[in-house]
């Protein structure tokens, strides 16, 4: 199969790699139909993540069709269209039982500080990711989720990382009804954080960035105010002035 192949810092290429196989009774093989490049993949590309090994395949945001399942897989079946969350989690350890899947201590035997992430170095488990034609998905009774028939895969793939990351940011911010929320950065996660801020009751959402096409997109998509900090003499002073000197409730 064709897959993205890491060859060292600043070096990646498309190569033929062996087709993944069922290695455990709870494995599934997914034919990837959509896969994203995350901003955090740049940390791998730049050689900044420890134990990123030559030959690794990145990609922790992908959806696809189930091609094969192990004998113990009951949650999904061959032919299902699934989205695959970026964490690899067993579902049974002390952390998974508390829904702290990012800390799963069964999926990553090489670390006591981090769980596992698809395509994110051997520090994070050493699992090849979804920037490939096929991917092996361990613990297939836990992570993969069947995509409803009426959902576009282009929308579903956003649920593998970018939407929940923005949602969690808004949730952890403790937004109260009527709050003025300021989001710094109109990248994909910032856009989703701005969009999700409304779900938690924000009364006003302001986004600050300097990339005009992103500012225009977030204005239309998240129905919020958006300002270019390069056109502001002092962004902090601007925020104070535009909020009657009260400032933001949440940033």
Layout of SSEs?
Elements: E1 2-8, E2 11-16, E3 28-35, H1 41-45, E4 62-69, E5 81-84, E6 87-88, E7 116-117, E8 134-137, E9 145-146, H2 153-156, H3 162-172, E10 180-184, H4 188-199, E11 204-209, H5 212-222, E12 225-228, H6 235-242
Helix pairs in contact: 3-4
- Using only C-alpha atoms, the radius of gyration works out to 20 Å
Quaternary class: single chain
SS-derived structural category: alpha+beta
CATH architecture name of the largest domain: Alpha-Beta Complex
Return the string of H and E elements: EEEHEEEEEEHHEHEHEH
Mean pLDDT: 96
Shape: elongated
| Uncertain regions spanning at least 5 consecutive residues | none
CATH superfamily of the largest domain: Medium-chain alcohol dehydrogenases, catalytic domain
The CATH topology of the largest domain corresponds to Quinone Oxidoreductase, Chain A, domain 1
How many domains? The number is 2
Q: How many individual helices? A: 6
- Percent of sequence in beta strands: 15-25%
Q: How far apart lie the N and C ends?
A: 44 Å
Based on DSSP secondary structure assignment, what is the total number of beta strands?
12
Task: Specify the biggest β-sheet.
Answer: 5 strands, antiparallel
Helical residues, percent: 10-25%
**Which strand order spans the largest sheet, edge to edge or round the barrel?**
8-3-4-5-9
CATH class of the largest domain: Alpha Beta
